[in-house]
């Protein structure tokens, strides 16, 4: 589903109007550009004046049309994803063409036209509605993950039927290799705290993932983009919700538990930022779920134990500290010492009001910070940045504190 700003831009491009031509006597070119790129919420009078130039509907009518066909769109994609019969719903979409083309679901209309004749389990060469494909190609930057996935899937299906399959297969593999390379660079940048670089590599990898319909890569990139938003000093709620919706759409294609992944990642990020109330909102939802006791559940129990220790919820904290202890034999040998120091630090923090003055606690934190990256990840080391900062302050190790800031706050 596109936004009102994107809708105006699509309609403007269809009518071959420039920004300057459309905004005459309505607003400045820069204002129109910001509207089209979702950077401002303009007054309804401005929006309706722009809509009057590109079509016959005002904002209220577009929203009403969108609501009216919402269930049809959801039903259509649910059927398309599992290749169910779509003849009846396709006819309904065509009957309501006027509503679709004057709503925020206008791109779904063209997806439906492209997939009218496609059986996704019988990849034979079938004629494509080239007009619809050409139009969608022009506006694919406005597609949501569902629309983008099925747009690119047309080319994957086409490529499976061309004569030189070996060449095409190699092309796809090459594109996938480059995409994964970009993704792992993005992941490295995120864990190094270089969020702008992470966003750039993630967006690049996402585009390559779309071209080969690599849903797993699309999901990973979207998750990184969402986490970068959370790491900003002032979280952009609109962008955060946008990426959350993308992840929810993509999770349908994967065997991932969407709620577990989201609650863990958002909760952990807030906890590392010492935003306890926000962290509690997500992590307590995670705790309520039935998650598998697997190799990495130590880290999951760690986040919950750290949260409840910070909130001084003793019984809940003890429960997860005990679970961490039970997980010790599941860890690799090079991880065990870090895990033991984490457990020790949490026990001291839970049972001692002046825990920061405790020399054993101080040694625990310093050991965790020094070895967490090698044992687990930079992310765990970063998680303990605030703790080591307080330890150095308590010990009046100002030179070490200076070096800590110099090394870890480069961005």
From TrEMBL:
<protein>
    <submittedName>
        <fullName>Helix-turn-helix transcriptional regulator</fullName>
    </submittedName>
</protein>
<dbReference type="InterPro" id="IPR001387">
    <property type="entry name" value="Cro/C1-type_HTH"/>
</dbReference>
<dbReference type="InterPro" id="IPR010982">
    <property type="entry name" value="Lambda_DNA-bd_dom_sf"/>
</dbReference>
<dbReference type="GO" id="GO:0003677">
    <property type="term" value="F:DNA binding"/>
</dbReference>
<dbReference type="InterPro" id="IPR011990">
    <property type="entry name" value="TPR-like_helical_dom_sf"/>
</dbReference>
């Amino acid at each position: 589903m596109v936004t009102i700003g994107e809708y105006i831009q699509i309609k403007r491009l269809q009518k071959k109007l420039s920004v300057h031509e459309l905004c005459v006597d309505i607003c400045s070119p820069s204002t129109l550009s910001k509207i089209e790129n979702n950077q401002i919420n303009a007054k309804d009078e401005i929006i309706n004046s722009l809509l009057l130039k590109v079509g016959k509907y005002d904002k209220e009518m577009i929203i009403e049309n969108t609501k009216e066909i919402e269930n049809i769109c959801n039903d259509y994609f649910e059927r398309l994803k599992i290749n169910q019969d779509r003849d009846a719903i396709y006819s309904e979409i065509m009957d309501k063409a006027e509503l679709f083309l004057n709503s925020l679901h206008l791109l779904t209309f063209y997806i439906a036209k492209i997939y009218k004749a496609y059986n996704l389990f019988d990849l034979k060469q079938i004629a494509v509605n080239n007009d619809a494909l050409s139009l969608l190609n022009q506006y694919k930057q406005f597609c949501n993950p569902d629309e983008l996935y099925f747009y690119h899937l047309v080319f994957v299906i086409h490529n499976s039927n061309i004569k030189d399959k070996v060449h095409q297969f190699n092309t796809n593999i090459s594109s996938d290799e480059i995409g994964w390379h970009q993704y792992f660079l993005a992941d490295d940048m995120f864990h190094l705290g270089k969020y702008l670089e992470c966003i750039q590599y993630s967006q690049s990898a996402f585009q390559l993932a779309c071209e080969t319909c690599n849903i797993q890569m699309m999901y990973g990139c979207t998750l990184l983009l969402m986490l970068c938003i959370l790491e900003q000093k002032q979280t952009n709620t609109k962008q955060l919700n946008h990426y959350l919706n993308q992840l929810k759409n993509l999770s349908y294609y994967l065997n991932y538990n969407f709620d577990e992944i989201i609650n863990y990642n958002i909760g952990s990020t807030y906890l590392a930022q010492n935003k306890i109330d926000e962290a509690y909102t997500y992590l307590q939802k995670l705790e309520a779920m039935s998650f598998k006791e697997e190799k990495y559940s130590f880290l999951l129990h760690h986040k919950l134990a750290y949260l409840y220790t910070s909130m001084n919820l003793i019984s809940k904290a003890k429960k997860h500290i005990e679970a961490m202890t039970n997980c010790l034999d599941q860890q690799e040998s090079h991880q065990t010492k870090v895990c033991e120091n984490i457990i020790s630090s949490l026990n001291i923090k839970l049972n001692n009001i002046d825990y920061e003055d405790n020399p054993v606690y101080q040694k625990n934190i310093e050991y965790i910070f020094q070895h967490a990256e090698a044992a687990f990840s930079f992310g765990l080391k970063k998680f303990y940045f605030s703790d080591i900062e307080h330890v150095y302050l308590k010990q009046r190790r100002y030179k070490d504190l200076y070096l800590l800031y110099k090394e870890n706050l480069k961005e």
